[in-house]
Each structure stands twice: as C-alpha cells, then as structure tokens.
Amino acid sequence: MRTLRHIAATTMAILAIGACTDYQDELDALEYRVSILEKAEERLNSELEALHVLASAVYDADYITDITNTGDGYIVTFAEHGAVLIRHGSDGQDGAAGQDGQDAQAPDIGIVLGADGEYYWTLNGELIIVNGQPIRANGHDGTNGRNGIDGIDGRDGQDGRDGRSITPQIHINQETGRWEISIDGGATWIETGIGATGRDGRDGRDGRDGTDGRDGQDATSFFQSVEITIDDDGNNFVVFTLKNGTVFRIPLASNQQP
C-alpha cells in the first residue's frame, strides 16, 4: 500500500522535473501537510487504544492512581489497566485563500453504554455491527472486586462475557483523502465520510480576493474534555467526556488533588 510519504515523494519528483526553484514553496507545504497527516493518524490510533482502556477500566471498577498533565494532554495511570496517554484536540489545517474551506475533523468514532451494561463502539452515531453483532469496547474477562479507596467502596467483580472486544484502527485513504476505519486488523476498511484535512477555499471572483478557509475543529482527538472533580464526600474523580457525549467518571486516589 502506498504511504503518505511515498505519494509526497512522487509528487515532489514530478514537480522537480519542471522548475525546482519555482515550486519550492509548494514542495515545502506538501511535505509539511504530509507530516501533519501522519501525526494525526498516529495520535488518533493512540486515542482509540486509550478509549478501549477507559471502557475496560470503568467496566472492571478500576481506579486511577495518578494523572499527570503533559502540556498537550494527560498521562493517566490505572491500578490494574496501566497507563494511557490522552492528548488534547488540535485544530486542522487552514484552507487556501478563496471562499471558506470545509472544516477538517476527526472521524466520528465513539463509545456508548449499552442496555446490557457493556460498552460498544460507534461510527457516525451508530453501533458498528459485524456479523450481526455490535463490537464491544471493553475487555473480555471478568475481574475480582477491588477494595475501596479512601471512602469509595469496592464493587463486586463483573462476570466474564461472550463476544469479542476490538480496538478499531483508522487511516487516511490515499485516493479520497478521507478517514477510514478497520475492525479486522487492517484487512478491510470502512469509509467514514470524514475528510482528513480542511478543503481548500475557492478563489474569489471578479478580481476580488476570497476569504481564507476555516480551521478544522479538534482534528486529532476523540475527547471533549478531561476534568478532575471532587464530590460532597471529599472523593476525587476524573471525568472524561467524549465528543459523542459519553462520560466516564473514574475514582482517583485521594493523594491526587483536583
């Protein structure tokens, strides 16, 4: 499969045949754009892994032992599920001069709580269905109940459950420039209908300059917010709010202050 950098290199070579000096700015811009797209793919796939851990931690009644602000996100450490990195969203790239460009955005992938108490993956607000079954976002095996932490009672362990838990993968289709999702390890890909970058604005007419394209909205995050809160009993929690509205409220060890 062709990579973003392969396409960029090919395009650069073609342009270089014409006039290297004249196209240097365009080449630099293309290389920068490819770098941004590669980072977006990496970050979003990392956040899908983080979402899987969050859903599993909530289901298994895990709690957070440490949360560290990295400047562009948080390192969240769970008692049983280890550490994950959750980054803040960042704006997409500007459209070129002309009429307003189309906003870039992350693909609409989320997690919702089912009526059975399980968490499931969604795409564009709908459950992802494979072979007639929704794809679960939390892990397979049940766990033992945990001891309470600083006034928060432990909960009974969850029963083991059937079915499969999968962490989706995403990439950018090289032909369409749109995000695609895979739930079979990259063997097949599903179109999301979401563009990876802001569409260029069109040129103004009648000699007038068009307006700049608009920035994409939080193009590299599935999270809306991460907040540390404290309840009336003095217990600390970390509240993760996804862009689809799903909220995870996870206990935080009391030595961590909000």
Q: Mean pLDDT across all residues, rounded?
A: 74
Number of domain units? 1
Largest sheet: 3 strands, antiparallel
Shape: globular
- Poorly predicted regions are 90-103, 141-148, 155-163, 199-218
Distance between the termini: 46 Å
Total beta strand runs: 14
Across the major sheet, the strand order is 1-2-3
Secondary-structure element sequence? HHEEEEEEEEEEEEEE
Percent strand equals 25-35%
Based on CA atoms alone, the radius of gyration comes out at 22 Å
- Please bin the fraction of helical residues: 10-25%
Question: Structural class, judged by helices and strands?
Answer: alpha+beta
Can you count the helices? 2
Describe the fold and architecture.
The chain has 258 residues and is α+β, with helices and mostly antiparallel strands. It has one domain. Helices cover 20% and strands 27% of the residues. The chain has two helices and 14 strands. The strands form five sheets. The chain has a three-stranded antiparallel beta sheet with strand order 1-2-3. It has a three-stranded antiparallel beta sheet with strand order 4-5-6. A three-stranded antiparallel beta sheet has the order 9-10-11. A hairpin with a 4-residue loop joins strand 13 and strand 14 (247-252). The longest helix is centred in the first third of the chain and has 36 residues, at 24-59. The chain is globular, with a radius of gyration of 22 Å. The termini are far apart. Residues 90-103, 141-148, 155-163 and 199-218 have low confidence and may be disordered.
